[in-house]
Amino acid sequence: MLNKFKWFTSILLTAALLIGAASVSAAASTPEKAGKHITLLHTNDMHARAVESESNGELGFARLAGIIDSYRASNPNTLLLDGGDAIHGTTFATLVEGESVVRVMNAMGYDAAVPGNHEFNYGYNRLVELEPQMEYPLLSANIRVKEDDSPLFHPYVIKEVDGVKIGIFGLTTPETAYKTHPKNVDGLVFTDPAEEAKAIVAELKDQVDVIVALGHIGQDASSADTSLNIAKDVAGIDVFIDGHSHTMLQKGLEAGHGTLIASAGEYTKYLGVVDLWIDQGKVISKEAKLIDYKAAAAIGPDKKIAELVDSIVAEQQEVLSSEVGETAVKLDGEREQVRAGETNLGNLIADSLRSVTKADIAITNGGGIRASIDEGTITLGEIITVLPFGNQIVTLNVTGADIKAALENGVSDYPNPKGAFPQVSGIAFKIDTAKAKGSRVHSVTVGGAPLDAKKQYTLATNDFIAAGGDEYTMFASYPQAGMFGALDEALTSYLRGLGTAASPAVEGRITAGATPSAASPAPSTGTKPKPEVAQPGPSSPAPGTIKEEPAKAANYTVKKGDTLWSIAKRYNTTWQAIRDVNQIKNPDRIYIGQQLKIPV
């Protein structure tokens, strides 16, 4: 009788949701199966996207909470988990060093979270200060204090839901050692996550019915540690809630020893849902899905969370709304663009570093640029959103050889996005993708003259890179020659100086092309060569792409399993270039048999 009542209630709730939007895929649509039904709701890489943005598909905290409410109403046996990188990324968080996000996550009723690399952006002592304010456990099994080898956080927690015992343990990417400022984690050790997972699973297996790994690990091919590898190496993990690589898994991914890996993209664009059915202490069925803005259109925001977010935003608004300057064009800081090519915003930021320092060269990492700025008025809040980390500008006196090594490090994954990708000023260079990593950069000029490997140049960069962050280890041994305030302060000052004249462009500071033959040197003209500059007009490269040497186009028919990335790799081009030449609105949606033009 109880099962019939639950079934009838489920049907009624589904019908109510469908009145608002036929496509709604909400909690009540989950079919009932044998065994006890447990729902794991999960987020990851939210990066403090507190405010709803329909145009970007960002649910924001209040609408996200509304969806969570609907699931809890449908199934009280629901847990809410976060896969890291929640408390940093927009001014909503950075103005109060993460406290605002903790307040909201408390109100939303999170049951556990794992610290991501960006949780350490305020320094690990600040994270330790925030932990007691969290009404949910912060879990990580592989972060130790170097001094006494003690764990920084609890490794796991056991939750009992409807008589089912669920063991949840945390893992943090060892990349945190260089994917936050190294000083932020000074005194900490990040141990092997797979080895820690084996030990935790061995400890939990006789105590619980379900084992959940809550990992800020990711699936990037360039990472030494991935959730896929851990699932392969460690038996006994039922579900791996993943973060760090911003991966969107629509239906999860089964890996390793039957582990279901789930990941909910980024920036509150999705709520992840994992449904488990447990019978006699064993998981007998599991399913994963994602709920996006469109699917949840009929579910309104949680009023309590909306009021809390609004009150925090109002407190900050006066400072953030002050005007800094104007831009005649959109300033491109999109993640996939600034991590894979020169953009106009990258140029502007690098120019501001060189302006304030009077350095020969400026290099800043594309991964530190976190948003775009629309055409029109530029506010202080927008600048802080673009550059939220509070990094300081430093100068180093660096040899040309180490400048070359730094550029090689930054473009090692090109055309794939990489956080270390260099946005530059005062320097121009080319990339030969046919060459091996470490030997790709050529035709480097500084101020129009060829780079001299033995000469010392004054380099302006951020203190994250200067300390060896993003694997710029060649700079770590250089003493600081000067410090010039924060990146956002330099950009603010530079824009105020430009006034209404800000219209930066992609100039061809970074281009792609074959290494010139050593047997055919260019004739000397007795004058310094000028860096290649793209002329305005149809031939100029789009922001976020690298200007390619002229080449023939090819035609390609999409086959099963293809992605724009895999096709681009095959033809030695970029997925962005294929997207643009074919005018593809959604790069995740290509279909078998589709004809594509390939800019080879």
UniProtKB/TrEMBL annotation:
BP terms from Gene Ontology: nucleotide catabolic process
Entry keyword annotation includes Hydrolase: yes
Cited SMART domains: LysM
Alphabetical list of InterPro entries matching this protein: 5'-Nucleotdase_C, 5'-Nucleotdase_C_sf, 5_nucleotidase/apyrase, Calcineurin-like_PHP, LysM, LysM_dom_sf, Metallo-depent_PP-like
LysM domain mapped to chain residues: 554-598
Nucleotide-binding recorded as keyword: yes
GO MF, one annotated term: nucleotide binding
Pfam family, one: LysM
Signal peptide start and end residues: 1-26
Composition-biased stretches (Low complexity): 513-527
Region Disordered, annotated ranges: 513-550
Keywords, in A-Z order: Hydrolase, Nucleotide-binding, Signal
Entry-linked PANTHER family: 5'-NUCLEOTIDASE, 5'-NUCLEOTIDASE-RELATED
Family under the similarity heading: Belongs to the 5'-nucleotidase family.
Listed name of the protein: 2',3'-cyclic-nucleotide 2'-phosphodiesterase/5'-or 3'-nucleotidase, 5'-nucleotidase family
Organism: Paenibacillus algorifonticola
